[in-house]
# Entry
Amino acid sequence: MRIISVEISDGKIKGAVFKRRGELLELLDYNINRSGKYYISVFYQDFIYSSIILPAVKDEETLFFLLKNRLSDQLESGTEYIILPVRNKEISENQIEYFVYAIPEKLFFDAVKKVGIIDPADVEFFTLSQFSLAGVTSKISEDETVFMIYTDKEKFIITVSHGNRILYTRSTKIPDFVTEEQLVNFYYENFNLTYIYIVQNQGIDIDSVGLAGNISKIKQFVELIRSFSDKPVYTVLPDLFLKNSDFDQFSSYTIQIGALNLSKDYNFLPLKIKQKKTFSNLSRKISLILMFIFLSLSVINAKSFFEVKDKFYSLKSSYTRLKISFEKEIASKNISPEQIKYLIGYINLLSSERKTVYLLDKISGILSILNMENLNITYKDGKRYISIRSEERFTSLNDMEFFKRKLKKEVSKLKDFKIVDRSVFDIDRLSAKIFIELVKEK
Amino acid sequence: MLNKSYILYTLLSFFIGLNLLIFFTLRYFDNYLSEKKRELGRLTEKVNTIKGNINNILHLKEKLSIRYIEEDEAESIILKKLENIKKIYGGKIIEGPVIKKGVIEAKISFNLKPENSKKFIKTLVSLEDSIYPVVNIEKLFITNSKNGTTVNIELNLTQPFYGGR
# Structure
């Protein structure tokens, strides 16, 4: 992903395109009118700064409301501001000190317009040039309080920071009347006053002094501040920041490079742009998830489609093979399906199961022991209904029992019949009225 | 940006919905084909059985001397049989001849007074042995009394025919 870091200073735009290579940056080119993530540093001296102590507030809206209230005497009415609270330290259990910075919101939109960015949400980071300088310091030394000095053709910036925390910043434009020869004196005078003010009035202990930009090339100035401050003075070298770069290139783009290393706490992006970016990020994530679901389903469907297609054609060919083999079989027999149907119907009609003689043979065992009065056989709906009636007389009880057993035995032989035996035996008269109903399914 | 996202969501949601529809349709179709595969398996078994049965049918055709009778001939066979039965046993035609699906049917009823069961069985066998037409006894009522045995028979004459209406 390309990163475009731009500084707007005195109405002029200066920027370069970078790419992150691990811990380092690679300067690709200077064509800033392209798509990518924008980091913008604006040199703006009239920002509002205040140290404000507030009770611990969790709700962001309430915090901003309180801060706006506290800053009300410094804010111009009718101007929208971007307020940036940076948590400094906890004063007591419920009291927190914030370093609060405020800049007009217009500054952001003017910068966006000036750089030619169509969608403000393409801006990843928006800060002040003075703050960007701290991005250089934080990478060099995280544990020291560094007094960093930067100069270019238009301005002189001093930013005192400790790690990621900016403690103080002061900047000035280099007046037109200052000549090349007077420049060292101008720098030294500004350094001198600021250093004394910071150490004596602000009570900040400086551990070292850093130099970046044009000023690092002026040996005379380096010697002056070293003897004055009695602190280590060093020049920031490009090796810590840029891959394959030289000192001049680094000196020219110190602010742009610093912005890329600055803590996110110093991002002045307006709240609505942050919200829009949050929404964009969320949208991107949702889109990725939806895209993943879409692609997964597409792959599954494509796989299923080919499986189903193979199954369909395999089934179709199996059916065709079966049909052809059946037709071949029929053709080899020289017989048509209609003829088969005719013959099956004919053969079924001739089935011995339908013959009454066959049925009489089946029940002949029962008929042989009865003095039968009448026998009724009816064929209806594919079933045979048989009813047998008879009156029997016996010579003795023994004879009667013998008959009973014999009848029972014969009836039990009829396995494929439904049998209803309504026979009545009169033991006193030694007689019986036999009434047996049989039903055969086929 | 916002509109672009909404367009992207809408398009993706639409395509996901479409994909889901395709997914369930394919699953339904897959199940349908599996069922058809099982049916084809059953059909294959049936076809193999039919192949076997065709041989049996042709064997029975030869054994029973079944001819392909056309409709006109079938009607003539039924009428001849009715006349023949009426001549031998008397009786009454109670239905037909009626043309049904692929067959001509008629029903005739008559009474018998068999001298003995042997002769009676012989009569039944001679009736039911007929192939042109097929004769089935629809009703048989045997009454034994002091005056001897009386039999009432209702015959169903069926003559299948090949082709025709």
